[in-house]
Amino acid sequence: MTVLDSKVALVSGGADGIGRAVVERYLAEGARVAVFDINADKLESLARDFPEGLITVQGDVTRYEDNERAVAETVAAFGKLDIFVGNAALFDYFVPLRKIAPESLAENFDRLFHVNVMGYLNGVRAAQEALKASGGSVILTVSNSGFYPGGGGILYVTSKHAVVGMIKQLAYEMAPDVRVNGVSPGATDTEMKSVEGISGRAQPLNHIPGFHENAANAVPLKRMASPADHAALYVVLGSSEQSPMTTGCVIHSDGGWVAR
Hints:
- It comes from Marinobacterium maritimum.
- Keywords: Oxidoreductase.
- This is 3-phenylpropionate-dihydrodiol/cinnamic acid-dihydrodiol dehydrogenase.
- By secondary structure, the chain is α/β, with parallel strands linked by helices.
- It has one domain: 3-Layer(aba) Sandwich (Rossmann fold).
- It has helices at 17-28, 40-49, 64-78, 102-134, 154-174, 211-217, 228-238; strands spanning 8-12, 32-37, 54-58, 83-86, 137-141, 179-185, 250-253.
- The longest helix has 33 residues, at 102-134.
- It is globular and about 50 Å long.
């Protein structure tokens, strides 16, 4: 048997990057998977690549109604929901507070926090009853920016610290029926995009000159992570057999920042 045989998962932000790596690993481990993402083209590509055991739902994580629809379509297709993975996020291109114009601060805050924080709350709230019925699990993608400064700008780092607190509080609130945990990746070779308009220099993370070399040299393991490098941790946390007593925890997958 594979680890996630008979499990049903819903992955937000699952059409690309770390989310897609989790989707692919979940399918390989026997799960049936619903992928919820705003990018219709990438969802179509994913559906072509995996015609069995997978459905796609196009929508916006900042809209509760879209999250509710994603849960409903997952349960309609597969009969239940065992795992919710919250993964959708925006970056802020390392912009410090002093470089955000006062008149645009609230707008940039709202855009980023509505995806990085409210998006997770919407997903968990929409999935809560289905997860309680199955004795399921929530897994939220954090970042080493949820623990250390410098991995982003003021908005991104603050949002990821908020996600760490969210995991702890939800684990407390949702026990004993649902376990809530997180995975904290470090710098990863993905096209993570920044909030539109926050910086005239903003570009996808892995397009930044020197990004791969600098990220590798910053950690003891001396290499840049691929999205697939993190995926096994989502499997372990999603399996009630492999981690039955783990809740309120975040597993680090960041090349050794804590040792540094």
